[in-house]
Fold these 3 entries.
Entry 1:
Amino acid sequence: MAGSPRGNNGAMTDTTVAVLGTGIMGAPMAANLAAAGLTVRAWNRTRAKAEPLAGKGVEIADTPAGAAAGADFVLTMLDDGSSVREVVEDVLRPGAVWLQTSTVGIEWTATLAALAEKAGVPFVDAPVLGTKQPAEQGELVVLASGPEGLREKCAPVFGAIGGRTLWLGPAGAGSRLKLVANAWVLALTNATAESVALAGELGVDPKLFLDVISGGALDVPYAHLKGGAMISGEYPLSFATRHAAKDARLVLAAGGEGLDLGGVRAALAHLDAAQDAGHADEDMAAVYYGLRVGLPGR
Ligand SMILES: NC(=O)c1ccc[n+]([C@@H]2O[C@H](COP(=O)([O-])OP(=O)(O)OC[C@H]3O[C@@H](n4cnc5c(N)ncnc54)[C@H](OP(=O)(O)O)[C@@H]3O)[C@@H](O)[C@H]2O)c1
C-alpha cells in the first residue's frame, strides 16, 4: 500500500497513524485504519499480541517512539490514565496530533492534555462507545473533543474506526459524555445480573425474564447480550470486569460528593467482589458472580 495509499472513500491519503496499544479495542482499530488505506504502525507492550496485525497491513514497531516517529497521528488505546502517560511521556513530538481513545476519566484527561500542551502536540480527547464487535466492524461511536480546527484532519482516522463521530467541544467534553454513557452501561449490566440472580433464587427460569421483557418497552439488547452470558455461564471477553470496575470508579469520582450514584456504586461493589473471586479478566457480565460472593455471610 505504501506509495499509493487510498482511503475508504477512494481518496488518496498519505497519512500515518501510530497505534499504541493493540488489545481488544486497539487491534481491530489498527486493522481498520490499515484497511482504509492509512499507513499504520502499531506498538504493544506484549509484542506477540500485535504480531497478527502484520498480516493486515500494519507495521509492528518495537517501541512506542519507533511507532510514533514522523507519524501524523498518535492514537492511544491503553488501560487507563497512568498507562497512557507512561507510554506517551517520551514519545510526543510536535507535528503529530494525539488522539486519546482510552477511557481515562476527567482528571486524567486534564493531566494528559497538559502533557500534550507541554510537548507542543494538539490533543483530541476521543473515547469511544462500543465494544469488541463494533471495533472489529469499524462501527464505534467516537466522542471527539478538542480543537475544532482539527475536525477535518481527523475525519479519515475517525471514519475508519467509527460509524459515527460526535465533536463535542473543548477537550474533556468527550470523556464527560463517555462517563455518562458508562454509568448507564454499568447500572444496566448490574441490574440484568440482579434480575437473573433473583430468578434463580425464586426458582424461576432466568430465560423467562429475558423472554418477558422481549420486544416491549422494557427491552434492551444489552440485557440479552449480558444476561445470556450470565445464564449460559460463558463469558466471551468483550469488556473486562477490571475495566468496568475502573470505569465505575471514574464515574463515581466524576459525580463527586453531591450526587448519590447508587446504581453505579452497587455495580462497583459487585464488580469488585467478582474480581476478588478471580473474574477480573472475564467479561463484565461476570459481575453476576459478585452478587453472591459480595454478600456478607455468603
Ligand atoms: N473493550 C471494550 O469494550 C472497551 C470499549 C470502550 C472503551 N474501552 C477502553 O479502552 C481501553 C482499552 O480497552 P481494551 O478492552 O482494549 O483492553 P485490553 O485488551 O486489556 O488492552 C489494554 C492495552 O493496554 C496495554 N497496557 C496496559 N497497561 C500498560 C502499561 N503499563 N504499559 C504499556 N501498555 C499497557 C496492554 O498491553 P499488554 O497487551 O501488554 O497487556 C493492552 O495493549 C480501556 O481504557 C477501556 O476501558 C474498552
Entry 2:
Amino acid sequence: MSTREYDLIVIGAGPVGENVADRATQGGLRVAIVESELVGGECSYWACMPSKALLRSGAALRAARDVDGARQAMTGSIDVAATLRRRDAVVHDWDDASQVEWLQGAGIDLVRGHGRLSGEREVTVTGEDGGTTVLTARHAVAISTGTAALLPDIPGLRDARPWTSRDATGVRDVPASLAILGGGVVGSEMATLFTSFGVPVTMIARSGLLGGVEPFAGEAVAKALTDAGADLRTGVEVARVERDSSGQVVLSLSDGSTVRAAEILVATGRVPRTADIGLEVVGLEPGAWLDVDDTMRVRGVDWLYGVGDVNHRVLLTHQGKYQARAAGDVIAARAHGAAVDDAPWGRHVATADHAVVPQVVFTAPEVAAVGHTEKSATAAGIRTRVLDYDMSWVAGASTFADHYQGKARAIVDEERRVLVGATFVGPEVGEMLHAATIAIMGEVPIDRLWHAVPSYPTLSEVWLRWLEEFGR
Ligand SMILES: Cc1cc2nc3c(=O)[nH]c(=O)nc-3n(C[C@H](O)[C@H](O)[C@H](O)COP(=O)(O)OP(=O)(O)OC[C@H]3O[C@@H](n4cnc5c(N)ncnc54)[C@H](O)[C@@H]3O)c2cc1C
C-alpha cells in the first residue's frame, strides 16, 4: 500500500472527470485522476463517438441518394465491414494511449484502478493486481463515475444475455435480427443504425419515440423507421424474455403477441455508477444519484463534488463538460480562498442545465432541440406562441436535397418577445442548433433577430420565415 497527497482527487476519467481535473490544474491545484477502465470514458469508447461514427455512413449514403447526379453514383448498399472499421479508428481500437498522453501533457497524475471513498477527503484505489493506493486530498474529491445501462426487472431478461448500448456500439458480428427495448435516444439511434445495415429491427417502445422532445419529432422518426422496414410496437410492454434452444430471443408482449430476434438490445435508461464507490463513508446511499448544488458540490458534504452524468442533472457529454468547467474552477477558487461567483449565470455555476440544454439525436431524420417544448413552456406558465415552418419550403432545402423533408418549431415567449425553445427535424439539422442555443441563452429580442440575416440559400432561412410568421 502506498499513500499520496494531492489538492484534488477525481474519480472517473470520462470526458467530465478529465475536464474537472484540467480546469483545477489550470487553477493551480495538484490533481490525481482515478480510472478503472479507459481514460476517455463511456463517451469516447462505447457511447457518443462510436455511435455517431457508425451512424454517419448511413446518413452520408441517404444524403447522396437524395441528390440527382450523386444518386446515380450510389450503386451499392452500405459496406458494413468498412463502417465498423471506421468506428474502430474513431475509438482508437479501444486504446486510450492518446488520452493518457493528453493527461500527462496537462500535468494531471493518472492512477489506474477502482476508486472508493475510504474516509474524509480520502480515496483508496484498488489496482488490477489487487494492490491499493491511498490518495488523500487537501481540498476536495470529485466523483465523475458516470452511468451504466439500466436492466429493467423483466422476468427472464438477465438470463437471456441481453445487449446493452456497449454491445450495440461495439458490435463486431451484426446480428441476423434485433429487438430493441426502449424508444428513447439510444433505442432510436440504434434502430436507425441497424436498419441502415439491413438488419430486421423490432422496436418495443411503450410510449412512442423520443418522449422528451416535441411530439412531431418522435413521430417523424417513427415514420422513417417504419418506412425503412422496422417493426415498431408501441403501447405494449415486454412481459417475459427467454432465449430458446436455437439461441433466439423470444419476447412475450403484454398484448399476447411474440417477437423473435437473434439479439435483444435493452435501452431503457441509465443507473449511476455509485454502488461501489464508498458513499456510505459519507452517509450517502450507495447506488443513488448524487444530489448537488449549482456548483456541483454534494449537498451536506462540503469537500465532495458530483459532476456529469452521476448527478442526473443532464445526461449529455457537452452539458457534463460545462459542469466540469464550473466545478474545476470553483474547487480551485475555494482552495485558494478566492471569491466564488455562484450567482445565476456566474462563472462557477452550471445555470444552463436548468434552462438551455441543446441535444441532437442522430436518427434519420435528425432531431435537434434546445430549451422549451410547447408543452414544457406552457407548464412553466409562459404565454407561448408556437411558430411552425415546413423546412422543405425554404430555398436552401431545394438545393440541399431533391426531396428534403423537415419541420422547424420555435417557441416564443410573447410577453418578453424572446425565443425560449426551438426544435428542428430533418437531415443535417444538428448543425443549425447552436444559433438557437445562442438566441435563447442571450435572450436576443425578436425585434433584434430581424437583423440576424440568414445566408441564402441555406436551411437557416427558416429563421426568417419564423420572424415573418411572428410579425413585426
Ligand atoms: C449509446 C450512447 C450514446 C450517447 N451519445 C451521446 C451523444 O451523442 N452526445 C452526448 O452529448 N451524449 C451522449 N451520450 C451520453 C454520454 O455518453 C454521457 O453523458 C457522458 O459519457 C457522461 O460523461 P461522464 O464523464 O459523466 O461519464 P462517463 O463517460 O460514463 O465516464 C465515467 C468514467 O468513470 C469511470 N469509473 C466509474 N467508476 C469508477 C471507479 N469506481 N473508479 C474509477 N473509475 C471509475 C468509468 O470507467 C468511466 O471511464 C450517449 C450515451 C450512450 C449510452
Entry 3:
Amino acid sequence: MKTKKKILECSICGTHNYKTTVSQQHTARLTLKKYCPKCQKHTLHQETR
Ligand SMILES: [Zn+2]
C-alpha cells in the first residue's frame, strides 16, 4: 500500500512538530491534539498541504 508523508503543524503558532505517514487513499484532513513545545501545552495540530 502506498503511503505519503504528512507534516503536522500547531494550529496556534504554526510550528511543525510532528511527521506522520498516511495511506494515499486517506483524503480527509488530519487534526490531532498534540503537545507543542513552543506553546508548552497540548494544541490542535493539522497537516500541512
Ligand atoms: Zn504551538
